[in-house]
Amino acid sequence: MGTYAIHKRNDRSNPPLVSIILLDWSCRERFHALDWLTSQTVPREQYELIWVELFDRVVPKAIHDADVVITCNQKRSYHKHKGYNAGLLESRGQVITVCDSDAVFPPNFIGSIIKNFRLPRDEPEQLVLMHYEWRTDAEYPEHLASIHELSAFVWKELWPNVGACMSVRKIDAMRFGGFDEHSSYRGFICGPYDLAWRLVNAGLREIWHEPGVALWHFAHPAPYFHPRQFSLSNLRRWFEVTYPHCEYHALTAVEGFSTGRVLPLEENPEVYRLRMSGRRIGTAFEEKYATKTGPAGFSKLQRLGLRFALIREGLMRCSGFLIWIVEKSLGKERFEALYRLFLRCAKFLLKILEKTLGRSRLQFLRKYANR
């Protein structure tokens, strides 16, 4: 489905409650997140792990530990949101979670999502759930075995990192167009907060989980954008910023949040198809208008035709007034004679057109000529 390839599917008969979408763009040095996510307090069948690679790298550990493995086969400048949508479309859970794919997760992380959405239920709680993420300048230790060992490191002050971890109902993600695939989201500066903020604009309640259950993120070997720790990898990361941003938040997302936008600027075609097919329209009369244009709207040519139709309608409405002036000017007898001559000419012209174009195509004119 779409332009991505699926290397492993979730073939379990019962759908999970939660789908965890983990993104990579051939940049992850370690895959410890999979170890922490496969060691949760809830039964493994209650959640699925979806590993999405934006390019074409297939990681053996992801094949072994994840339930779904996808490669998007993107070229040059990557687009994370297209990867998110691939994970969204292949997910089977009632709730989808998009989070850092190189973090440490506490054993009750999945349980906290299930609890907040009050699963299992036919209708999970409608909300936008965000988890905090602790960060440190230390690199990931080789033999970290327990969440309790994290206290040995120095962690920075906690702040609401909107790109770290977001959970929403899958049905809400689909209803509001999934993740925006607009070109301004290409490159490093983007994240699941695009969808989160549009859902908040639509009226969903956003809550931040208490910091007792949070993600823990160790530093990369080449820190992002650090002015005093130059490296070629650091410089390469900088060139992955392809569009102006607002304090390292995607400009388009901030603008959408501020203006109250609820749908993406560029919707994934498959998400669009599924969203539109889920509509429940009351009458066949309305269905005629529900599929009139497609996602692009009316074309310029169609709009021009409707503009001419409006002008014609105006002229037709004015014709009664013009006829009244002619009748008053010529007198009733002369006007009737002129009107009969007009009808004879119209019938003659209609016969010529019927022979040329066919009688069936001109039935709508016959009622006027037969007066």
Q: Could you characterize what this model shows?
A:
- By secondary structure, this protein is α/β, with parallel strands linked by helices.
- It has 13 helices and twelve strands.
- The chain has helices at 32-37, 60-65, 80-90, 109-116, 170-175, 193-201, 232-238, 251-259, 269-277, 284-290, 300-330, 332-357, 363-369; strands at residues 5-8, 18-24, 47-53, 68-71, 95-99, 127-130, 133-139, 165-169, 205-208, 215-219, 245-246, 249-250.
- The protein has an eight-stranded mixed sheet, sandwiched between helices. Strands 7-10 form a two-stranded parallel sheet.
- The two termini are 59 Å apart.
Mean pLDDT: 90
Give helix % range: 25-40%
Q: What's the level 1 CATH class of the largest domain?
A: Alpha Beta
Measured distance between first and last alpha carbons: 59 Å
Helix/strand-derived category reads: alpha/beta
Strands of the biggest beta sheet: in what spatial order?
1-4-3-2-5-8-6-9
CATH superfamily of the largest domain: Spore Coat Polysaccharide Biosynthesis Protein SpsA, Chain A
Beta-strand fraction estimate: 15-25%
* CATH architecture type of the largest domain: Alpha-Beta Complex
The arrangement of helices and strands along the chain is EEHEHEHEHEEEHHEEHEEHHHHHH
